[in-house]
Amino acid sequence: MAQSDIDGAGWDLAQALAHLTDQSSRDGIVHVATTFARGCLPFAAVFGVRTVDGVSSCQGWNRQGPVVGALFASPLVVADDCVVKRSLAVPALFFGRPTLSEGNVRFFDWLGRRRPKTMLLVPIVVGGRPVAALFADAGVRACDPAALADLIIFSSRLGGAFHALLRQHRRTAAPPPALDAESLVVDAALLPSSAPDQVVHEVSSSGVTRTDQELVALLHDMDESVVAGAGAELVARGAAAVPALAALFPGRLRVDPCADDVDVPTAHALSAVVDVLARLGTHGLPVAQAQLESADRSCRFAALLLFRLTPDARCIDALGARLYDDEASIRRLAVLALVPLLAHPGFESVLRELRHQASTSSAPANRRRAVELLGAFRDVGAIPLLVAALATELADAAAAALRVIGLQNHGPRAGAWEKWWAKAKKRSRIDWLVDALDSDDAALRTQAQGELQALAGADVGDGADDVRGDRKRTMAVWRKWWARHKLPMV
Fold it and tell me: Per the confidence metrics, is the pTM higher than 0.90?
C-alpha cells in the first residue's frame, strides 16, 4: 500500500501491524509508525540515530502533530544529560516525565515541542544496535501507561520491519563481499530518503578504499546518491575526516544563503560539506571557528550555521562580533546562534558590547540595532540605559525593548519606567514574569507564559487565562514552582 494512501484514522493494533507489513521502504515504515503513534498521543516522531566515536546524533525522518520550528530537518548531537542518550545506551524503552536539563531542552527544541508531562521513547534496534527511535508525547497531560499498551507492542515490531527491509535490499542489490552484514544492517536502516536504494560501502567499486580527500571531492558530485554515500562514509570516519573537509569549506553551495529571499537553510540545503560537518557535531566546530571572520560571506554564514546547530560557549565573543556583520542574513543568524548561550556567564561580554554600541556608536543604525538586540536578549542590566534612551531619537526602539524585558506597558514615559525600576530592580526577572501573568495586556501575559514554560517545561500552570480568578490561581502555581527552584538567573 502506498504511503499516500494511509491516513491511520481509527486503526487498531492489528490494522497498524498489517499496514506495517505491507511497507517496502523506510519512508513507508516511518509513516505507518508515526501515524499509528499519533492516533494514541497528540504528537509522534521517528528519527534515525547514529553513534560515532561515542557521539550519538539524531536525524529527523518524520513527525506528526503540533510543532514549532524547523530544526527537526537538521541533525542533533545528543547531549550526555539527554533522555535519548540514556535510552539508546541500554537500549531500553523510556516512559515518564523527562527531567529539566540542558540536553533535554535542546532535544525538545529540535523536535519543535515543549517539555511534556509524559513521553514515550522506544529505540528501534537492528543488528544489535539502535538505528532509530520512536517518540511520542502527551503534551501538558499525564498519561496512563496501560493506555499505551498497543503502541508499545507495535513499537516492538519496528526493528523487525527494518530488518525485513534489509533482507529485501540484500535480495535485490547484492552487496560486495567486503561489506560485513552488521554494517549493512545499520546503513540500510539509515538510507536517506533521496536515495532509498543506495547502500553505502566502505570501498569503491574497484575494491580500493577511498581517501578522505577523495570522499570530500565526491561531495561536489552532481549525483545526489554519490554525495549521500560519500557523506555517510565521512561521518563514519569521524574527527579524522575534518582536515579534508576544512580544505574545501564550505563546499559547493546549493543556495546563496545571503540572498534577500532565502530563509535560514538547513545544513543539508546549504552544502554537502557543511552537512557532514554538522553531523560530526563538536568535531566540526574548529573548522567553523576558523571561518567566522572570513572575507567570504558564505564562509561566515556556514560557520555560524554550524554553531547554531551545535552551540558552544567557547566562541561566544567571536559569535557576538557577527552581530555587527555587514550582511543582514549573517546578523540574523548570529542572534540564533547566541540565543542558546544566554544563560552562560560568558554572554555578559556580548551584552556589555551591545550596551557600549547603544550608548556611543557614531552610526545611528548601529545604535538602534544594539537597542533592539538588548531587548531580544532580555538584558536586565541595560534597563537604565534604555530609560535614558527614551529622550533620544531611539525612543520607539527603547520603549519596545523595555516592554519585553520588564513586561510593563509604560510606553515612552521615562518617569513611569524610573518609578517602576526603583522597586523592580530588587526582585528577580522571574518574579516580573509571574506578575505579568495578571497583566491587563494580553500580549504581555502570553509572553510571560511562554518564557516561564521555556524555563520549566509544559507541566507548570495551565496558561494565563482571561478570567481574573484563573490568572490568580495560575500565578500561585508558578510562585510555588519558583520558590522550589530559584534558578540562577535574573
Answer: no
